[in-house]
């Protein structure tokens, strides 16, 4: 048998070859000494191929050739090195350790696995809560509530074992967003005049206020913004339109719109 000794790493394919000479017809048979051929073994006449080898496949194999004159045998050994299993990495997207979301919103979490290992099970759970939330890669939390705050875990099982990843979800109350109001919501002025529009903002957290035009036009040098106040000097017909005040803190933004009319009267 050639080679008489074959060594492979666990998971690799092993090939044993039996050198045969003699008069045909000839019958060739493969056996494993002290056992049976693995179910992953494929016999190709004088070749024995064993796919996805494991430690169980190591041992001595015998090849027997028979023709009308008799039979002859050869023995070869298969050694399988055990390879330390490396579990695939699991990632949850969005890839943040802590995700803040406002109550009432819908949150989508996606569980991803690196590599091409065959997945046998996916499971979403929440720490300190019994039961499985989902067996899909995606977890959808609809109209999320304050009580949904917690640590969510995705576990993925492959032939190599189980891998896990977790994310902390913090649900914030709606009233943490800034409140914005512009009154009156419609202002009328004359060409050449100056007009002041104030955006009233209330927030329990530091807030940033910005002004913009609804049509996307830039604010030119005649526009002056101080804190939450928009001052338009030397008003022209082209200044007529909608203006948006946006107040933003770390948890989101709110906005209000005011209409500016320019009239000769």
Automatic annotation (TrEMBL):
SMART domains: IG (SM00409), IGc2 (SM00408). GO terms for cellular component: axon; neuronal cell body; plasma membrane. InterPro entries: Cell_Adh-Cytoskel_Orgn (IPR050958), Ig-like_dom (IPR007110), Ig-like_dom_sf (IPR036179), Ig-like_fold (IPR013783), Ig_I-set (IPR013098), Ig_sub (IPR003599), Ig_sub2 (IPR003598). GO terms for biological process: homophilic cell adhesion via plasma membrane adhesion molecules; synapse organization. It comes from the Eukaryota. GO terms for molecular function: axon guidance receptor activity. Gene3D superfamilies: Immunoglobulins. Keywords: Disulfide bond, Immunoglobulin domain, Signal. It holds the Pfam family Ig_3. This is Basement membrane-specific heparan sulfate proteoglycan core -like.
């Amino acid at each position: 048998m050639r080679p008489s000794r074959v060594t492979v790493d666990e998971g690799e394919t092993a090939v044993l070859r039996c050198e045969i000479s003699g008069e045909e017809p000839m019958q060739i048979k493969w056996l494993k000494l002290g056992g049976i051929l693995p179910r992953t073994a494929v016999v190709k006449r004088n070749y024995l191929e064993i796919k996805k080898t494991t430690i169980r496949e190591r041992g001595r194999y015998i090849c027997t050739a028979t023709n009308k004159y008799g039979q002859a045998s050869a023995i070869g050994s298969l050694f399988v090195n055990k390879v330390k299993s490396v579990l695939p990495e699991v990632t949850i997207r969005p890839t943040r350790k802590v995700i803040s979301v406002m109550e009432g919103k819908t949150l989508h979490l996606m569980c991803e696995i690196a590599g091409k290992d065959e997945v046998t099970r996916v499971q979403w759970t929440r720490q300190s809560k019994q039961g499985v939330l989902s067996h899909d890669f995606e977890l959808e939390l609809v109209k999320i509530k304050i009580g949904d705050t917690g640590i969510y875990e995705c576990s993925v099982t492959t032939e190599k074992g189980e891998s896990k990843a977790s994310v902390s979800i913090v649900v914030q109350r709606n009233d943490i967003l800034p409140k914005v109001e512009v009154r009156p919501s419609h202002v009328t002025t004359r060409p050449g005049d100056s007009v002041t529009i104030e955006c009233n903002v209330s927030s329990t957290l530091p807030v940033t206020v910005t002004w913009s035009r609804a049509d996307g036009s830039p604010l030119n040098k005649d526009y002056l913004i101080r804190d939450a106040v928009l001052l338009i000097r030397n008003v022209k017909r082209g200044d007529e339109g909608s203006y948006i005040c946006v107040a933003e803190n770390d948890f989101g933004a709110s906005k209000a719109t005011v209409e500016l009319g320019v009239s000769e009267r």
